[in-house]
Amino acid sequence: MRIAWLVVFAGCYSAKPAPPTIQNRAEASTGGLLTITEDGFGPLHAESQATLTALRAAFAGYDVRPTNDSTLSYSVYLGDEKLVWVIPNEDGTLFNVHATSPRIETMGRDWRVGSAFQGASSLTDCECWGDNPTCYRRGGHVAVNFKIACSGVQGSDRSALRKLDGAVIQRVIWSPKPFAGESADAADLQP
Fold it and tell me: Which pTM was predicted?
């Protein structure tokens, strides 16, 4: 009989559950070397100078090289990999900055060089820059350049912009001045 009570008692006993573990930490970054935000590109912001001296100071630890094809520009390298292309204005201020490597991340978006684009609904306009379209949200500071022909995706035709989802990103561009100068209003974002 004692054995029966022990079996019944043992079957009803349950161990005290372990207290839940609480973790106070943020999700890890996706590992970009530099980050593009609406306010800047890595160490660069709207007031940054785009001179060789200023860029070498801003990108300490990287190799900043001037290039003078038809106009002056600067490229930022890590080893043999070109990460960034900086276009200055004639007065030495920043015109825009281009991510040329998938190692540059865009805050709040999955926009990386070489990856398939998603987010056409957040764009309002496309312009042809050379042979490829560069698209942006009017009034924003971040644009995307694609490895496709410009035909059919210039302007602000919402149905044409939807065709960009899945297109390969060639560059992600940050500008200290807003693209197209003004913010998009609700009418611009209607399908």
Answer: 0.78
Question: Are 100 and 171 in contact, with CB atoms under 8 Å apart?
Answer: yes
State the DSSP code for 182: S
Pick out the chain residues at pLDDT < 50. Answer: 1, 4-10, 12, 17-29, 184-191
- Residue pair 4/54 in contact (Cβ under 8 Å)? The answer is no
As for how many domains the chain has, the answer is 1
In a domain, 187, yes or no: no
CATH label of the domain that carries residue 135:
2.60.460.10
Q: Is the residue at 145 inside a domain?
A: yes
Q: Give residue-wise pLDDT tens across range 34-78.
A: 999 999 999 999 999 999 999 999 999 999 999 998 899 999 999
Is residue 159 in some structural domain?
A: yes
Q: Tell me the pairing of strands 63-68 and 44-45.
A: unpaired
* Residue 146 domain boundaries: 34-182
Number of neighbours of residue 173 by Cβ within 10 angstroms: 23
For residue 191, list its beta bridge partners.
none
